[in-house]
């Protein structure tokens, strides 16, 4: 701000009629174009919202996107939306998971904000009383898989995309609440096998173990299936539905409510370990080289 003010003052002196006053600064900031939205929301006539992740090229989850997603869920709750369909603007990636750049050589304050935003947005999605469906129209590794797992129903475009919690392959450990989500979907045995191997599943394999509920051949079909899933709740009393969802998801909800601070500390301690930093750096390099 000091630099902006100094530059503006110089500019004002040159033009003589302008001064670096609060009004001038307000006008200056108003004239800056708004940053592009990273999440768009479109509510149809039936009151069902399509929430689209829109951070090219791969919807990696940075603080900004997570924050916008959290706000979108809260707004939709306030507006009594009938359903949420979570999808992506990309033709090949649902979400590439957490933005590795948020974790690589981070500033402590940014890292803390990043993880807290992830925790809060995850909890909002996981526990919302609104019926939720992931229309997975592309690859969904790690944090991308987590978002899908947090929804009540998963429809995935196949057969060529992959989904899974691949953290061990990166030399990192998925937090407990990621594991709870995987167990919720596929059961403890399959979750243990998937997580220890860091397995990325083909769409068909994911269908076979219950990691996804339906395989379709394009995004339009995925959205139509998601709408069908949500429509069934028109006949179910909302309070009974809400209490049942809250109750069946109690383990994950309680875990986060009781452990958010410890979870943040564990993450902060782990990320800055030199071997983790080295691994993340090498992973980023490898992604560049594989092009
Ligand atoms: C340290 C403690 C950790 C605690 C627990 C953490 C829990 C969860 C961890 C995560 O979610 S880590 C992220 C894991 N994600 C992945 O392993 C996926 C990596 N990406 C891919 O496999 C591929 O990008 C893709 C999703 C299959 C898409 O492939 P495509 O060929 O379409 O695109 P690319 O050319 O590979 O990528 C384009 C561009 O995006 C960059 N990028 C990709 N993924 C990420 C990411 N997760 N974070 C940051 N940046 C990413 C990639 O480097 C390319 O960049 P440029 O070269 O264009 O600059």
TrEMBL record:
The keyword Transit peptide applies. The gene is LOC117640255. Key enzyme of fatty acid beta-oxidation. Able to isomerize both 3-cis (3Z) and 3-trans (3E) double bonds into the 2-trans (2E) form in a range of enoyl-CoA species, with a preference for (3Z)-enoyl-CoAs over (3E)-enoyl-CoAs. The catalytic efficiency of this enzyme is not affected by the fatty acyl chain length. It catalyses: (3Z)-octenoyl-CoA = (2E)-octenoyl-CoA; (3Z)-dodecenoyl-CoA = (2E)-dodecenoyl-CoA; (2E)-tetradecenoyl-CoA = (3Z)-tetradecenoyl-CoA; (3Z)-decenoyl-CoA = (2E)-decenoyl-CoA. This is Enoyl-CoA delta isomerase 1, mitochondrial. The lineage of its organism: Eukaryota, Metazoa, Ecdysozoa, Arthropoda, Hexapoda. Its main location: mitochondrion. One of its GO terms (biological process) is fatty acid beta-oxidation. Pathway: Lipid metabolism; fatty acid beta-oxidation.
């Amino acid at each position: 701000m000091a630099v902006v003010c100094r530059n503006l003052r110089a500019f004002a002196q040159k033009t003589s009629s302008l001064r670096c006053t609060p009004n001038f600064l307000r006008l200056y900031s108003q004239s800056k174009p708004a940053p592009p939205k990273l999440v768009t929301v479109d509510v149809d006539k039936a009151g069902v919202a399509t929430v689209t992740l829109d951070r090219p090229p791969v919807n990696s989850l940075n603080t900004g996107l997570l924050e916008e997603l959290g706000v979108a869920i809260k707004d939709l709750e306030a507006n009594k939306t009938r359903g949420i369909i979570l999808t992506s603007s990309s033709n090949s990636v649902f979400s590439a998971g957490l933005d590795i750049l948020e974790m690589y050589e981070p500033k402590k304050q940014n890292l803390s904000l990043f993880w807290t935003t992830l925790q809060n947005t995850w909890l909002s999605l996981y526990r919302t009383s609104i019926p939720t469906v992931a229309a997975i129209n592309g690859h969904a590794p790690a944090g991308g898989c987590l978002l899908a797992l947090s929804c009540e129903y998963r429809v995935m475009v196949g057969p060529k995309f992959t989904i899974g919690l691949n953290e061990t392959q990166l030399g990192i450990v998925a937090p407990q609440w990621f594991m709870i989500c995987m167990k919720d979907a596929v059961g403890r045995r399959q979750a243990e096998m998937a997580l220890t191997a860091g397995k990325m599943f083909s769409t068909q394999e994911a269908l076979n173990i219950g990691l996804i509920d339906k395989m379709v051949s394009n995004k339009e079909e995925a959205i139509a299936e998601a709408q069908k899933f949500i429509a069934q709740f028109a006949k179910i009393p909302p309070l009974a539905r809400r209490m049942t969802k809250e109750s069946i998801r109690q383990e994950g909800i309680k875990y986060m409510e009781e452990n958010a601070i410890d979870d943040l500390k564990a993450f902060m301690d782990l990320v800055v370990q030199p071997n983790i930093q080295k691994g993340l750096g090498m992973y980023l390099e490898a992604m560049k080289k594989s092009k």
